[in-house]
Amino acid sequence: MTNFIIKTHQKNTVYTKPHLFILNKGMNSGKPQKEPFTNSFVIIFQNETDCESIYYVAYSLWKTNFWHPHLVGSVIPFLRLQNFSKEFYLKASLMMQEHEEHQKNVEAIKLLEKKEKQFYENINLINDLKRVILYRYSKK
Asked: Using CA atoms, how far apart are residues 22 and 50, in angstroms rounded to an integer?
């Protein structure tokens, strides 16, 4: 299991080691990102490979709404650092126990994200072409 430190992100703090941010307020709590959120936790790692590996664990937990039962608060739901740390460590160690399967799943997710990006780029190109054709047609 990789070693990491989870703490609350402070605005204007610069981290020298590899890190990722986890949103801790709202219905998107648990969402991982490389750039800081206003309300977020930061997970700090010793090396970049651990960071990337844990990123996909956090991404899968967020996408499957794993954090929804752990949200507290009546108006704006949020995650508590203590609950997040405990649950994240347990779930991450469980998911990464079978290392080869974990690596295979990460590669599959990366490939699907790449294909999704290509798909959206193609949709944008199609829309641009339609716009050009309609513009030319209407100018006659």
From this structure: 16
